[in-house]
Specification:
- It contains 8 helices and 11 strands.
- The chain is α/β, with parallel strands linked by helices.
- It has a 5-stranded parallel beta sheet with strand order 2-1-3-4-5, with helices on both faces. Strands 6-7-8-9 form a 4-stranded antiparallel beta sheet, covered by helices on one side. A two-stranded antiparallel ribbon has the order 10-11.
- A hairpin with a 3-residue loop joins strand 10 and strand 11 (about 220).
- Helix 2 runs parallel beside helix 3 and helix 6 (about 155-165) packs across helix 8.
Length: about 230
């Protein structure tokens, strides 16, 4: 992928660009809003990683609003020290596709960017998700593993849907809080552990092969043994 990083902090920019290149992607860098806007508007990128606070007379919000006003639909991930709910909402309302706060883990940044680009290449909204013999029908809101139907509560269904959409990737607690609980809970809450445990009881315990795995000190991953 070709990714534009618009970030004025030299250390952060160097860290992100280096990581992207080591992951096999092409990364371009702009250290101010004016240059970032010029590059984003004049060249083709698969994704943009955008800081909120930028020098050059154009901040991240204005940069993105300008791009969206030009019908530029390149997926944008905000990367910012502004982490309050209001700040995130402003970023998303300006046209951002995702929002990650500093400090951050590069693995999570990379996972989010790759998810955004896959979503952008989709031919249409998926109505059925599958991981191994686990299937989810988004239209009928039903889940089956093999021939057995699995009954889930609404929050369990949403949690499983998120995990299935990120199958094969490490999903962090922060990602789950934002993607499933909409920031409504404190990061230290055990609500995630409780729901993961309940989900395991339903999708794994009755079956021979587990699909939901805990990745120590990182988060969770839904995958088959072959993945």
């Amino acid at each position: 992928m070709r990714i534009l990083v618009v970030e004025d902090d030299k250390d952060v920019a160097s860290f992100v660009v280096k990581g992207l290149r080591e992951a096999g992607h092409t990364a371009e860098h702009a250290d101010n809003g004016r240059d970032g806007l010029f590059l984003a508007a004049s060249e083709n990128f698969d994704a943009i990683i955008l800081d909120r606070m930028l020098p050059g007379g154009i901040d991240g919000l204005r940069l993105l609003e300008t791009l969206r006003g030009q019908d530029n639909t390149t997926p944008v991930l905000f990367l910012s020290a502004l982490g309050q709910v209001d700040d995130r909402v402003k970023g998303l309302k300006a046209g951002g596709d995702d929002y990650l706060t500093k400090p951050f883990a590069f693995a999570e940044l990379l996972a989010r960017v790759e998810t955004l680009t896959r979503r952008g290449k989709s031919d249409g909204p998926a109505t059925r998700l599958q991981v191994g013999d686990l299937e989810m029908d988004l239209l009928s809101r039903t889940v089956r593993r093999g021939t057995q139907k699995i009954d889930l509560q609404p929050r369990e269904f949403r949690l499983l849907e998120y995990l299935m959409r990120h199958a094969g990737q490490v999903v962090t607690r922060t990602m789950l809080l934002e993607g499933v609980w909409d920031y409504h809970f404190d990061p230290q809450t055990n609500v995630i552990d409780v729901h993961i445990s309940r989900l395991r009881q339903k999708i794994d315990k009755p079956f021979e092969t587990p699909l939901l795995h805990t990745v120590r000190n990182a988060g969770y991953m839904l995958r088959t043994e072959e993945a």
